[in-house]
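Is S-adenosylmethionine placement plausible here? Inputs below.
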Amino acid sequence: MARPTTPSTLAAVLGYMLATGAPWPALVAWWRTRLRKRGTRQFDQAAITEAEDVARHTGTFGPDWFSHVVPHWLRAFEVLGGPVQPLDVLEIGSWEGRSACYLLRKLPQARLTVVDTWGGSDEMLRTREERARVAEQRFDLNTRPWAARVTKHKMTSDAFFQARPPGPQFDLVYVDGSHHADDVMRDALSAFAALRPGGVLIFDDYLWRFYPRPVQNPAGAINAFLRLKAGEFDFLAVDYQVLVRKKPPDASAPD
Ligand SMILES: C[S@@+](CC[C@H](N)C(=O)[O-])C[C@H]1O[C@@H](n2cnc3c(N)ncnc32)[C@H](O)[C@@H]1O
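Reply from A.M.:
I modeled the complex. Tokens:
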């Protein structure tokens, strides 16, 4: 089985973004994000270390796919009004709850809805069954201190959205479920529709590559989404994750 890879040099990232159809505003946002990161490296490292500590003191976790992105999350939290706000948050893909626990800890008024099959993803195929069983048990234990603020749905994200009434219901949506572009595209459209104006949508794994054709990976879907919904959001960051903020309806009318 192939292992996921991530382009590591500047040229490789740029090449990958172009190969997966990144619109030019995404390229500009990526460059701006790079400049901002260079100016805040010390703060970023402190935030990452804090996220690692949160996990260490909360429970039992396997691989850490999350802590390196928290500087972007802190920006999103700030934009959404910070820890005092009773935000409605949706996470698609929770696994052992590492990102969920961080969010619950940093946003003490937030209500978190999580959706996961706890069946693992394509890239986890070989060890999926056993690891997935352990992952769900860990999720339940790890999130127990905040159980009153967590609503858990064990199902596909498609089934979750189909069962919900249409319309905006969330202030923050994190898309980190299936990484195949077909699924990411459906998650992106459903999540954006479910996002309140001013809300933030976070995509994980923009630079993650596992499927043979570049466009089959999350970036293929995320870039298609960015083109389709251009004008309806503002970029907050383009990096390993993409963060966009939904504009109010009047501001998103087509030119
Ligand atoms: C990378 S893990 C999530 C990691 C977690 N957000 C974190 O940062 O620790 C991806 C998760 O998506 C779930 N998943 C895969 N396909 C899914 C689907 N179609 N609907 C919902 N969840 C899915 C998997 O079971 C797995 O738990």
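Short version: The chain has a mean pLDDT of 92.
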